[in-house]
Amino acid sequence: MKNAVEESNTIINTEPTTNEIESNSNVSNNNQPKELTEEEIRVMEEEVVRLVNEERAKHGLYPLEISEKLMKTAKLKSNDMATRNYFSHTDPDGYTLYKQLENLDNYWTIMENIVSGKSPCIAMNTLLNSKPHKEQILNTNYKYIGVGFNNGYWTQHFSMNDKWANEN
Fold first, then answer.
1. What is the number of structural domains in the chain?
2. Cα separations (Å) of 44 from 13, 20, 25, 121, 135?
3. What is the pLDDT of residues 53-64, one digit of tens each?
4. Alpha-carbon distance 76 to 71, whole Å?
5. What is the pLDDT of residues 98-154, one digit of tens each?
6. Which CATH number is 124's domain given?
7. Is residue 58 part of a domain?
8. Does 138 map to a domain?
9. CA separation (Å) from 113 to 1, 137, 148?
10. What is the pTM of this model?
């Protein structure tokens, strides 16, 4: 039997265009990366949720609800990729989302998208230009979303199960 966790295995890495660089407020006046506050990061993560729901609305789909539990798991994944300098659904220890979450109830309802990009718009444009990632964003089985960001690493986690997604 196939693992019940679905993963979009296409890895996407993009570089910003000149216009995107100019509009990016994550760089200080001396061209050094600006340290973002937790509040600024949360605003960026919620912007990705807004963009996901905007795209879903274009296709006549209901909006996904933010799950704080999925926000935490997505943040953990982005933090891990940034800290250990890898970009993959499989971490350096060989663990996939399936393995990382296998001890949780109803883990099979989780889906993961990862993408690199400096801004919510760059990340979402990249995902929407990838057929498997766009299909997950528009998947009618999912009801909940969590987004995590750290230093250009974005993670989206989706769930259909409200009990798991909203459990603390």
1. 1
2. 18, 15, 11, 10, 22
3. 999 999 999 999
4. 9
5. 666 665 554 557 899 999 999 999 999 999 999 999 999 999 999 999 999 999 999
6. 3.40.33.10
7. yes
8. yes
9. 22, 9, 11
10. 0.76
